[in-house]
Amino acid sequence: MKKRLSSLALLIVIGSVLNAQNVEFEEFDLDNGLHVILHQDNNAPIVTVGFMADVGGKDAGGDNNPERTGFAHFFEHLLASGATKNIEKGQWRKIRASRGGRGNANTSLDRTYYYQTFPSNNLEFALWMDSERLLHPIINQDAVDTQNEVVKEEKRSTYDNRPYGQFLFVTGENLFKVHPYRYKNIGDMDHLDAATLEEFQDYFNKYYVPNNLVLVIAGDIDIPKTKKMVNEYYSAIPKGEKIVRNFPKEEPILETKKVTTRDANIQIPGIIAAYRTPGFTERDAYIFNMVSTYLSDGKSSKLYKKIVDDKKMALQVGAINIDQKDYSIYALYALPSGDVGLNDLLAEIDEEIIKMQNELISEKDYQKLQNKIENQIVSTNSSIENIANALARYYLLYGDVNLINDQINIYQSITREEIQAAVKKYLNPNQRVEIEYLPETK
Q: Which stretches make up the Peptidase M16 N-terminal domain (predicted)?
């Protein structure tokens, strides 16, 4: 009886936590096309103000120009801390910190996101700062030259001089031949150097317009007062032209492509098997998030336990689902231990994939997988900054803000049979690029 009561209590607690995760929000539009999402949570005196722009690394030079990559990432830096008409160069972070704020920005191939978090009594100040970089940014030659140097240093430290730093670049370049997902998100430094000031200004004027953005405000706010302030600070931003994209489609991969790449910063070789999978709005993309969790989330996962722990063939092994709007990337990778061959490692990984294709995962593993996914969602939605990001992302990229609440139901509805079917459909040797990632020879 005691055990039954304990189990019932646990279920009540879990149910309460999941119910508490339901995120309420309001949406409205300004006359200039800016979509606004408000989430009120008065539990702590903080507020996050952010905006997401429908522009990313795939929008090279504004017109899919392969000689002008990296523009979206460049603007991440310029607008995150650059000068404006009313904020002098080098003062952005100092002014923000003086009000107890913090902030950051990030760019993917699909979108760029900027956010700042302040004590909630500084909401109006946060809105002023945020709108200032959209209304009055200084995009002159000095600003361009300054940010170019910042980007170059980031590229050197994060990619060029870091072991396995070219992993994503090599994968994207070989999986995509015509779609701009083949571009490096950070761009080619020669492209940024060659671009004119007018090209940078045109890029801003094309993409950083209210009808190509979503503004999100989350935290300790008063809804009516916040709406009034949003209108005051953002309504003057002029509406832009509608952006039309006609990116070319990729032909299916029908036979294995083998690639060799070399990296002067590594001593241990690696193997990558990369597949092109559906974009993140498709149900199969959710399934592949589950597949990667099943295969390589933690030391008890299938690949790690088998290849690293039991057989001691690898120092590291994993599966990653890089979800993107038009096409996603599913990549399996491993670093060998000792003299283990890369082909032997790939064969061990394939053994697990074939097993998933031929057998349903066990009920126990399926339930463990569901629990992990639920915990990840609950954990993500426990932070105001994460909630703000999710609200903006689900609106801009998925077209459904309420996915912040519904995604858990999507995962719960995915069956073992669907997992098996997706692995059968997409993870076959003739559908992949095999990349041998080798040390530079002297």
A: 36-155
pTM of the model: 0.92
Give the pLDDT confidence of 126-176 residue by residue, as tens digits. 999 999 999 999 999 999 999 999 999 999 998 888 899 889 999 999 999
Residue 137 per-residue DSSP state: B
Question: Which residues constitute the domain of residue 209?
Answer: 26-234
Placement of tokens 């090279």 in the chain: 60
CA dihedral sign of residues 390, 280, 151, 85: negative
Residues 340 and 411 in one domain: yes
DSSP strand pairing (213-219 vs 35-40) = parallel
Look at residue 71 and give its three-state secondary structure.
Answer: helix
CA distance 262 to 272: 13
β pairing state of 112-119 and 257-263: unpaired
Residue 333 lies in a domain: yes
- Which tens digits make up the pLDDT trace of 132-144? 999 999 999 999 9
| Residues near 364 by beta carbon (within 8 Å), at least 6 away in sequence | none
209 and 282 both lie in a single domain: no
Q: Are 236 and 174 in contact (CB under 8 A)?
A: no
What is the distance between the alpha carbons of residues 255 and 8, in angstroms, rounded to a whole number? Answer: 53
How many domains would you assign to the chain?
Answer: 2
Residue 9: inside a domain, yes or no?
no
Residue found by looking up tokens 């994209």 in the block: 245
